[in-house]
Amino acid sequence: MLLLALDTATPAVTVALHDGTSVIAASSQVDARRHGELLLPAVDRVLADAGLRLDAVTAVVAGVGPGPYTGLRVGLMTADTFGLALGVPVHGVCTLDGLAYASGIEGGPFVVATDARRKEVYWARYEDPRTRVSGPAVDRPADIAEQVAGLPAVGAGAALYPDTFPDTRGPEHVTAAALASLAAEKLAAGEELLEPRPLYLRRPDAQVPKNYKVVTPQ
Amino acid sequence: MADTRDEPLVLGIETSCDETGVGVVRGTTLLADAVASSVDEHARFGGVVPEVASRAHLEAMVPTIQRALKDAGVSAKDLDGIAVTAGPGLAGALLVGVSAAKAYAYALGKPLYGVNHLASHICVDQLEHGALPEPTMALLVSGGHSSLLLSTDITSDVRPLGATIDDAAGEAFDKIARVLNLGFPGGPVIDRYAREGDPAAIAFPRGLTGPRDAAYDFSFSGLKTSVARWIEAKRAAGEDVPVRDVAASFQEAVVDVLTRKAVRACKDEGVDHLMIGGGVAANTRLRALAQERCEKAGIRLRVPRPKLCTDNGAMVAALGAEMVARNRAASDLGLSADSSLPVTEPHVPGAHGAHAHDHDHVHEVSKDNLYS
Ligand SMILES: [Zn+2]
């Protein structure tokens, strides 16, 4: 088994290879504006580090968000297309689950929160690093303060709003290594993974911007 | 007929606006032109909503690639290259296509060509009328731009002679259709009503046609305002608006200026043929008037069939195939979508000069440090 995992739902552009036992190569870069440019070279580098070629991959695992849409789609489109070209399955994993898994917080409930911009967070509540009990959802931190009171919080979204999340833990960003390990564990246990479809959690802004110029008419 | 088996087999991906287009061509022969459109999802907003378009591209991409390959009757492993619109267009929408193309090229071990959307609109005519004459004069008219371009080599030299200084021609059609309550998109419906109207009924202004105005630039903003005022005045007076005459007179004002300037550019530059592309090139009156004026001026007119004029993947594949045929440098895997890619850049060669026919393309990327 060789899993190629990637996630572009947060400012991190992250890629990992997992052989069914452990992560054998990984790359993470944080640059919220260059997902499109960085992802493919990162895949190429991770494969080169492992001394493998893409056609050795037996399944692709993609973070499905939630996350800011433009970056999120880069990873999902790449995963979809790899699946098409290689003829291998493509699985989705909730990006927040990857952060929960990497947190290692075993003793009781906690939350994961990432930055949803517009003064909101994407968040979910966990019983343990493998068990999500609510969410993901998108909310203003102040509106969920009561629900998350007293709980440790993981992720960059939590760190942004210390009034709501006073007890912030690491890691700040998701890693594909964590996603790959979680996916490998679930696959080994015979659990179903998600469809590789994006979790937008918001409707598109359905307004044609003023002075907007389409490239082509109908 | 010439043996075409040695000509480059290229798949092209186009996502600059609301069409997910995937085409396959061999040299100048069209093999497949698969398009999935999200236009219906935009109609109630009266224009293309970028986020709606981007979401639709992500969902449509893989099925559209599969359909194109099936229609073409070719296998992905036989492709000589993957071409994709790198720009100009909607940033988020372009990024979906560029991501797909990069992943596809990388997974198949094929060279990648990020190409210019406008140059693709010109190059697509090769699929209809054979190799482009050099130089080629092109009038590109769509919802995003109205440009006069002169190209001596579609893979390397495209010169802008003039462009709209405000609204694009297609945009004016959409806006007037909205004022007339005809819905979105405006082009086809105005065209239909205009056929039953009198183009000389109302004398709407011809923008930028004065003796001191820029010879090849366009302006449709004043026309749009003038038409809207005329309609509002009728309504305010409690009179019926003669929709067919308004549509015909407005359309005549647009296509009169477009064809007059295009024919003048051909004469001034000594070019004896004119290519018209872009979505507005589907307009029947534009085609008819261009034909009439070109014949009078001794200019040969080349207009692809309407389906090749609107955005599609075949036009991207056509330009990609020309890039391969002329040994242009491939793009590298760091290729980014550029929403304002200048028309003077027909493609985006890689920073490392990866060669079109370099079969070690994938390897070469590994060697180079792309992270410095
Ligand atoms: Zn176009």
Key phrases:
heterodimer, A: alpha/beta, five-stranded mixed sheet, 6 helices, disordered C terminus, B: 372 residues, alpha/beta, Nucleotidyltransferase, domain 5, globular, binds zinc ion
Could you please describe the fold and organization of this structure?
The complex is a heterodimer of chains A (218) and B (372). Chain A is α/β, with parallel strands linked by helices. Chain A has helices at 35-50, 69-86, 95-103, 141-148, 156-160, 176-188; strands at 3-7, 12-18, 23-30, 59-63, 90-93, 110-115, 121-128, 131-139, 153-154, 168-169. Residues 209-218 of chain A have low confidence and may be disordered. Chain B contains 13 helices and ten strands. The N and C termini of chain B lie far apart (51 Å). In chain B, 58% of the residues are buried. The interface between A and B is large, with 45 and 68 residues. Bound molecules: zinc ion (ZN). Zinc ion binds next to helix 4 of chain B. Chain A: This is tRNA (Adenosine(37)-N6)-threonylcarbamoyltransferase complex dimerization subunit type 1 TsaB. Chain A: Residues 32-145 form the Gcp-like domain. Chain B: Residues 30-317 form the Gcp-like domain. Chain B: Its cofactor is Fe(2+).
Please describe the topology of this protein.
The complex is a heterodimer of chains A (218) and B (372).
Chain A (H helix, E strand, L loop, with lengths): L2 E5 L4 E7 L4 E8 L4 H16 L8 E5 L5 H18 L3 E4 L1 H9 L6 E6 L5 E8 L2 E9 L1 H8 L4 E2 L1 H5 L7 E2 L6 H13 L30
Parallel strand pairs in A: 1-4, 4-5, 6-9, 9-10
Antiparallel strand pairs in A: 1-2, 2-3, 6-7, 7-8
Chain B lengths: L8 E6 L4 E8 L2 E9 L1 H5 L6 H23 L8 E7 L3 H18 L3 E5 H7 L2 H4 L6 E6 L4 E8 L3 E7 L5 H11 L6 H9 L26 H16 L6 H27 L3 E5 L6 H14 L2 E3 L3 H4 L3 H13 L35 H7 L5
Parallel strand pairs in B: 1-4, 4-5, 6-9, 9-10
Antiparallel strand pairs in B: 1-2, 2-3, 6-7, 7-8
The structure holds zinc ion (ZN).
Zinc ion (ZN) binds next to helix 4 of chain B.
